[in-house]
């Protein structure tokens, strides 16, 4: 099968998300200029550089009560900071609750019953018991083609790692089993890890 996106795929559901999978989930916490916290998962998320460490996530829709985007991007525009929280399998249900489209200013931490903690380097809340949280300062917001597509880039200025996830000097993902997004309503979890050495190692 071949299709051109501009012509449509003719299938009952869009296959694009399923083709590019699995995708790590960036559970993005932000705070608006009035001090109200927000938490939302984004599966268009990844690390993009080592030195300095940098990450990105993309928001691809808009809310009626926010100007042309969603709460996360609007808050980051106001404050210039955000935090990426890693989602473990055990948090799959509360992560899903936090994806609800709530009115601007309503706290998803409170709605989902998620404990929060203050970040160290930025004025923002983070998921208290997340396996890891990355405190980020905004470097740029890039508007992509499309009505509400924005890519947000940030430099990581602080890293939290839960103590039980650090084993023999390594951050061990099998200790918490990262949740990843597939296509449609499907998710997967990392339980098995194997190693490959590069030819020039």
TrEMBL record:
GO terms for molecular function: oxidoreductase activity. The keyword Membrane does not apply. Keywords: Oxidoreductase. Its EC number is 1.5.1.-. It holds the Pfam family Flavin_Reduct. Gene3D superfamilies: Electron Transport, Fmn-binding Protein, Chain A (2.30.110.10). Coiled coil: none annotated. Residues 20-173 form the Flavin reductase like domain. The keyword Oxidoreductase applies. It is an enzyme of class 1 (oxidoreductase). InterPro entries: Flavin_Rdtase-like_dom, Split_barrel_FMN-bd. Transmembrane segments: none annotated. This is Flavin reductase family protein.
């Amino acid at each position: 099968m071949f299709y051109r996106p501009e012509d449509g795929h003719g299938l009952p559901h869009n296959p694009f998300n399923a083709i590019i999978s699995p995708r790590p989930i960036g559970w993005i916490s932000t705070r608006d200029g009035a001090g109200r916290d927000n938490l939302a998962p984004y599966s268009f998320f990844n690390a993009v550089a080592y030195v300095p460490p940098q990450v990105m996530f993309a928001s691809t829709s808009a809310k009626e009560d926010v100007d042309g985007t969603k709460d996360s991007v609007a808050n980051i525009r106001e404050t210039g900071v955000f935090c990426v929280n890693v989602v473990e399998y055990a948090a799959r249900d509360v992560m899903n609750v936090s994806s609800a489209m709530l009115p601007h200013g309503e706290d998803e931490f409170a709605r989902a019953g998620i404990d929060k903690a203050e970040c160290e380097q930025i004025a923002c809340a983070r998921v208290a018991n997340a396996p890891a949280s990355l405190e980020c300062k905004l470097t740029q917001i890039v508007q992509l083609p499309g009505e509400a597509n924005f890519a947000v880039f940030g430099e990581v200025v602080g890293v939290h790692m839960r103590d039980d996830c650090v084993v023999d000097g390594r951050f061990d993902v099998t200790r918490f089993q990262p949740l990843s997004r597939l296509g449609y309503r499907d998710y997967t979890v990392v339980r098995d890890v194997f190693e490959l050495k590069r030819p020039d190692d």
